[in-house]
């Protein structure tokens, strides 16, 4: 994600990535509407734009199945929210999670 510093001094930005619940949650599984999946803190010089990559661990796409007593991946469409905080979402995208 490109992050631009439009200010007059060098500053820091914390880019946060939130993962929405699966569109069709597996039976018996509960998910938060939006959960923090990863973040990166970047220092950006005045007037500069920086491309920021936030890596999301595959475990963040999983849930604990009490029926199967193991971690499972929730497949299908999920919404990814990117912003400075959970209340300051600046970009969203839909991804399809496969195994």
Q: What is the end-to-end distance?
A: 25 Å
Low-pLDDT residue spans: none
Secondary-structure arrangement, i.e. CATH architecture: Sandwich
Average pLDDT metric? 92
Radius of gyration: 16 Å
Percent helix, as a range, is under 10%
CATH class: Mainly Beta
Number of domains: 1
Fraction of residues in β-strands: over 45%
Number of strands: 8
Q: What's the overall geometry?
A: elongated
Briefly note the structural class of the backbone: mainly beta
CATH topology: Immunoglobulin-like
| Sheet with the most strands, sense and barrel status | 4 strands, antiparallel
Write out the strand line-up for the largest beta sheet, numbering strands in chain order.
3-2-7-8
Order of helices and strands: EEEEEEEE
Q: How many individual helices?
A: 0
- The CATH superfamily is Immunoglobulins
Explain briefly what this protein structure is.
The chain is mostly beta strands. Helix content is 0%, strand content 56%.
Description:
- The mean pLDDT is 92.
- The chain has a single domain, classed as Immunoglobulins (Immunoglobulin-like).
- It is elongated and about 55 Å long.
- It is built from no helices and eight strands.
- The strands form three sheets. It has a four-stranded antiparallel sheet, with no helix packed on it. A two-stranded antiparallel sheet has the order 1-4. Strands 5-6 form a two-stranded antiparallel sheet.
- A hairpin with a 4-residue loop joins strand 5 and strand 6.
- It has strands at 2-4, 11-20, 34-44, 49-51, 62-65, 70-73, 76-85, 88-97.
- The protein is mainly β and 99 residues long.
């Amino acid at each position: 994600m490109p992050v631009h510093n439009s200010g007059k001094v060098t500053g820091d930005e914390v880019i946060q990535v939130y993962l929405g619940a699966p569109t069709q949650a597996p039976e018996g599984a509960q998910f938060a509407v939006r959960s923090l999946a990863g973040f990166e803190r970047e220092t950006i010089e005045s007037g500069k734009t920086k491309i920021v990559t936030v890596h999301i661990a595959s475990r963040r796409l999983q849930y604990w199945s009490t029926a199967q007593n193991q971690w499972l991946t929730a497949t299908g469409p999920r919404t990814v929210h990117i912003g400075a905080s959970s209340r300051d979402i600046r970009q969203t995208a839909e991804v399809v999670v496969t195994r």
